Amino acid sequence: MTDTAHALGESRTLWELVERRAALTPDRPVLLQGDRTLTFGELRDRAERVAAGLHDRGVRPGTVVAWQLPTRIETALLSFALARLGAVQSPVIPFYRDREVGFALRESRAEYFAVPGVWRGYDHTALAERLGARGVFEAYETLPEGDPAVLPPPPSSGEEVRWIYWTSGTTSDPKGVLHTDRSLIAGGSCLAHALRLTPDDVGSMAFPFAHIAGPDYTVMLLLYGFPAVMFEQFALPDALEEYRKHGVTVAGGSTAFYSMFLAEQRKQPGEKVIPTLRLLAGGGAPKPPEIYHSVVREMGCRLTHGYGMTEVPMITMGDPEDTAENLATTEGRPPAGMEIRIAEDGEVRLRGEAVCRGYLDPEQTAAAFDEDGFLITGDVGHLTESGHLVLTGRIKDIIIRKGENISAKEIEDLLHTHPDVGDAAVIGLPDAERGERVCAVVEQPAGAAELTLRGLGAYLREQGLAVHKLPEQLEVVDALPRNKTLRKVLKYKLRERYGS
């Protein structure tokens, strides 16, 4: 990390970080969207005016403001305006509907709710009214503005909880995760340091800004003073024009994004699909080693993958200068200040400034931390001698067959090397004789040969998989069920579908 970036990373609050970056490079762009450009100076000045407009509406330090908005320049301005006021903001993913949105509004006790109106054919204002939300206002193209002279002093401490993020409730209600400005700055600093970025880079936000990756990525832009292209709706190949027009050098999101870029690259082998691209980076989901090797070989760029979650936006990250073996098979190393403890059962536990302050529900907070203050993640893994973290799965993804523990990820990584497998998920299903049986659910690429359980088993044996780990059930699907943020595979839906 450069001396300037390191100094900026010591900012107490997000607003202090905005002010310090704007003073350094006021005319450099920070956000690009279509034909629009927002500079660091404009981010500071416009966010202050929006903060004044919100203040005129009654928003004060500590006021809880929920927002459900797409990835737009206006969304970033609103978020930083709330940070300037010292309000508590509760971002909600735009794809969520009545159940999740209603839960977030009730649990956070939101006093205001910003929505995009009708977006992608869905009426969010009607949703808000149906749920009885308070202080509803639309914030898609226009934002409230006022005279910054009315504003109180900006917050001076970054240790108060000012962010409520929501885990993706799959089988139960989501959990409200509590963050401070400092925990988000620490997470973004980790990402910025690991990726070795420069002011000459151009990044991209292809994920919902309301995701925890939103501030994580924006902190990185503020630390290093480079811009990112925002995608309100991300789809390939449509988005490629924007990547090329703005000369994006760093792209990614998660493993599913790598696969999408690879699919486009394979349409024009030998010609870089994004000529300026030098790095794909992301996290949030397991990365099979074969994906890494395919990206490097076919796209002609580097790939670094990391480990993060809503509770800890950045835990480890691959270093672009690391060995191919480490980049392919590990999640990278933790930065200074992030402690990783591996419990006796292999569970990963975390302690550090980037770790959340707990949950809205005190009982959930008590259950989430051990006696030494380490966050209990539910992930299983180990640290190598060089300090790299290797994840082997989730505790709930460990399949127990006849008393033997089987890692679903080990089988998935091997399945990804099969030429007729596009993507795969391995789950354990109830079995009267074995306790659990191993089930492989597979997507196939276009033109692939038909897969059989026997043939797949023979292939896995050739790759060295032990006999007791071989799948006993094969399901071929058109598309694996995924969430709409980082496109993670929803294994619980597969268990529900095939568990009977």
UniProtKB/TrEMBL annotation:
Top-level lineage group: Bacteria
Entry protein name: AMP-binding protein
Pfam families: AMP-binding, AMP-binding_C
Organism: Streptomyces solicathayae
Alphabetical list of SUPFAM superfamilies matching this protein: Acetyl-CoA synthetase-like (SSF56801)
InterPro entries: AMP-bd_C, AMP-bd_C_sf, AMP-binding_CS, AMP-dep_synth/lig_dom, ANL_N_sf
Family assignment from sequence similarity: Belongs to the ATP-dependent AMP-binding enzyme family.
Domain AMP-binding enzyme C-terminal per the UniProt entry, residue ranges: 410-484
Sequence ranges assigned to domain AMP-dependent synthetase/ligase in this UniProt record: 19-360
Keywords assigned: Ligase
